[in-house]
Amino acid sequence: MKLNMSVFYDWLKDFHPTAEIRSDAIEIDTVRLFSNNMTPKSNCLYIGKLKDLFVNGSDKVICTHNNDILILDTDDEEDVLNSVLNAFEFYSKWDNALLELLSSNSMLQDFLDASETVLKRPIFILDAGQRLLAMSQNYPLGSVDAQWDELIMDGSSNMEMIVKLNRTQPERFLRKGIYTLDDSFGTPHGGQHYNFFVNEKWVGKLVMIDLDQKITKGETCLLTILCQQFDKWFHAHIQELDALQQDRLLCAALANAENDNSELVRSLNIHGWSDTDKLILIQVNAPYQPFNINTHFCRTINHQFSNIFAVSFRYSVCLLCNLSLMNKEKTFQELLPLLQAGKYYGVISQEFTMTDSFQKNYLYTEITGEYCEKKAGKLYNGEDYIMKYIFHEMPKQTNADLCHPALRKLLEYDKKHHSDFVQTLQVYLTCERSNVETAKALNLHRNSLSYRLAKLQELLEADLDDADTRLHLLLSFQFIEQ
After folding, report:
1. Which one of 342, 367, 445, 459 is separated from 260 by 20 to 30 angstroms, measured CA to CA?
2. How far lies 166's CA from each of 169, 182, 272, in Å?
3. 185 pLDDT exceeds 90?
4. Among residues 249, 262, 274, which one has the least CA distance to residue 128?
């Protein structure tokens, strides 16, 4: 196990160390007594006396690593050596325990329990939906702050605080390594934060709360070591965590109209979206590209747009756009070049809110998209194909036969007598009962058409002068085609 000088500064505090630490590299894994003929190694902590290193030095003990030094208020090298060996034994035992937990498929809570004697501060870990995964067990209600109490009781932090923090510091989701945040959100304590990523995707975070504003550099080193083990845990358990990820939640909402979308809505709320925001779905396809480029396209969209959440769903990309955060015109203006570059086209849903069905709006784009031109770099409005959508959806809403009964009888007559009165009726109604236009469309002489229409009127048990009857018949042709 590798440590740094700041860890030994904390460990040797009973010797009242004076420190001059510059590099503080985490690379020390052994210890030696200083000798004049030694060759220094970068992984070794050396113990000696000041007089061994400096002409006018005293008998005080000095610990050195590279250019970092600790001067201790003692002349007992053996006592210091034993203390450093105890440190290696203590932290190595902890490190071995973490490795064993990792190999035995343990939960995050087990890692925190095993670290309570090493990092004696309240720590909690959240998933990407800001739900609690684990927290230090030695801090009951009332021992830390209101945020900590909410984690204990509700399994999540205060929603208002999370939304405010996400809006003012969205860059925090991109930070690597240990970092601190400006404490201006009503929490009495600061702390150190660490983000977890899998395949460059943010999957969770850890916070160690600084109750006394005295987190040391040594504690930061130990927290880094712990977080590195958590990184491995997240990579090993990503499939389990996927069920909690925002993309999985959205995909579940798109796939099932009966899905409970409360976790998805909550996740979007955390990222600053409101229940009443105007949303649209855009189904994006690239007919001339392999669908495996969709993941890269999603990452590009999610990185460049703050008002779009992109997921790969089935063989398409689905874009959930918040038009309350950026208006439609600007969103489309910035989106179109990316569609063109990726040879994608998109179909736009109607506007809706989070209280509406995500699946219904996705199916709207899927069905209307069957009839668009499918030209790369274009966005097609589903409303332009609304009649096709209606014809597709209407039969699903009832078990009744929606076709006009007179048309059914006419179909049977044509089949029996090998005639084509159904086609004549469809063209006649489509041409708005214009004899001239109907004759042209059917390539018939006007007299021939007049005879056929007269015969049609005898066979058809319907009043073509009634507007509702004509509409029903026109819709019936579409139902038959479906």
Report:
1. 367
2. 5, 13, 7
3. no
4. 249
> What average pLDDT score do residues 368-377 get?
87
**91 close to 3: Cβ distance less than 8 angstroms:** yes
Q: How far is CA 285 from the centre of its chain?
A: 20
DSSP letters, 131-150, are BEEEE-TT--TTSS-HHHHH
Q: Which residues contact 259 (CB under 8 A, 6 or more apart)?
A: 252, 253, 359
Domain 405-481: give its CATH superfamily. PucR C-terminal helix-turn-helix domain (1.10.10.2840)
CB distance 139 to 152 below 8 Å: no
* Nearest CA-CA partner of 312 in 285, 339, 335, 345: 285
Q: At what angle do helices 217-236 and 77-103 cross, to 10 degrees?
A: 20
Distances (CA, A) of 369 to 108, 219, 262, 295, 423: 45, 56, 28, 21, 27
Q: Is the dihedral of CA 295, 299, 304, 305 positive or negative?
A: positive
Q: Is the Cβ–Cβ distance between 325 and 352 less than 8 Å?
A: no
Q: Which of the listed CATH numbers 2.40.290.10, 1.10.3720.10, 2.40.40.20, 3.30.450.40 matches domain 108-242?
A: 3.30.450.40
